[in-house]
């Protein structure tokens, strides 16, 4: 399986000539979802869900489908009947040849005064876990954790402890559009030294084989 990092929280997974995209939001490239056979959306925030871009991707590929939670599905299902699938924690499904399990229910706390939206994480082929905007720990082992490295709702100690709790073989940064190049070495050092897993980051457009 080939993993390609797109900007911010978006990744593309390719296997057997099929492509699955997770969280092609407004901080990602305009064509991040183009060519996808399946798109997974973790939650409704704009940096993970861009309605116009998803509509364009679905229009471009009449066979493409979306799997997401109810709050996002409700915005798209009328325009694309039968192609938008609502999922929640504990569900399992196949999309474009990938096996996906769903974990988690709520977005991390940004501030106690702000209501929490729903959020799900996706474990793909029992190997790659993308948690969206939450520090959800799957109920099974994870080889590759897509690590939300920097967000308004987290601090680096929580990120480190999350890697330790999940216990992946490796962690690859996502949710990094707000992290400046000046600060990256600080995060790399702390997470790499203290997380207990191989830690790496990919520039947008770079790929790795899993």
Architecture overview:
Helix content is 19%, strand content 28%. The protein is built from four helices and 14 strands. The protein starts with a strand and ends with a strand. Helix 3 packs parallel to helix 4. The mean pLDDT is 96. The strands form two sheets. Strands 6-5-4-3-2-1-14 form a seven-stranded mixed sheet, covered by helices on one side. Strands 7-8-9-10-11-12-13 form a seven-stranded mixed sheet, covered by helices on one side.
In short:
This protein has helices at residues 51-60, 70-76, 156-166, 184-194, and strands spanning 2-5, 11-15, 18-22, 38-41, 65-68, 84-86, 92-95, 98-103, 121-124, 128-130, 144-148, 170-174, 198-200, 207-209.
**Major sheet: size, sense and barrel closure?**
7 strands, mixed
Largest beta sheet: what is the strand line-up? 6-5-4-3-2-1-14
Rg on CA atoms, Å: 16 Å
Would you identify the regions where 5 or more consecutive residues have pLDDT less than 50?
none
Mean pLDDT: 96
Strand content is 25-35%
What structural class do you assign from the helix and strand content? alpha/beta
Listing every helix as H and every strand as E from the N terminus to the C terminus, the arrangement reads: EEEEHEHEEEEEEHEHEE
Termini Cα gap: 5 Å
Residues in helix, %: 10-25%
The backbone outline, from C-alpha atoms, is globular
Number of strands: 14
**What is the count of DSSP helices, taking H or I runs of 4+ residues?**
4
């Amino acid at each position: 399986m080939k993993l390609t990092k797109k900007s911010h929280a978006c990744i593309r997974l390719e296997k057997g000539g099929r492509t699955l995209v997770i969280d092609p939001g407004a901080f990602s490239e305009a064509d991040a979802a183009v060519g996808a056979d399946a798109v997974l959306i973790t939650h409704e925030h704009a940096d993970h869900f861009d309605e116009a871009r998803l509509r364009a991707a679905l229009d471009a590929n009449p066979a493409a489908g979306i799997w997401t939670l109810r709050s996002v599905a409700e915005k798209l299902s009328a325009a694309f009947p039968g192609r938008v699938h609502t999922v929640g924690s504990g569900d399992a499904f196949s999309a474009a040849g990938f096996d996906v399990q769903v974990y988690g229910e709520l977005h991390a706390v940004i501030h106690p005064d702000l209501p929490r939206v729903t959020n799900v994480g996706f474990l793909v082929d029992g190997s790659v876990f993308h948690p969206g905007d939450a520090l959800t720990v799957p109920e099974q082992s994870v080889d590759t954790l897509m690590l939300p490295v920097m967000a308004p709702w987290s601090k680096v100690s929580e990120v480190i402890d999350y890697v330790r709790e999940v216990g992946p073989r490796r962690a690859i940064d996502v949710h990094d559009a707000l992290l400046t190049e000046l600060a990256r070495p600080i995060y790399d050092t702390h997470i790499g030294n203290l997380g207990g897993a191989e830690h790496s980051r990919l520039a947008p457009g770079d790929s790795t084989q899993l």
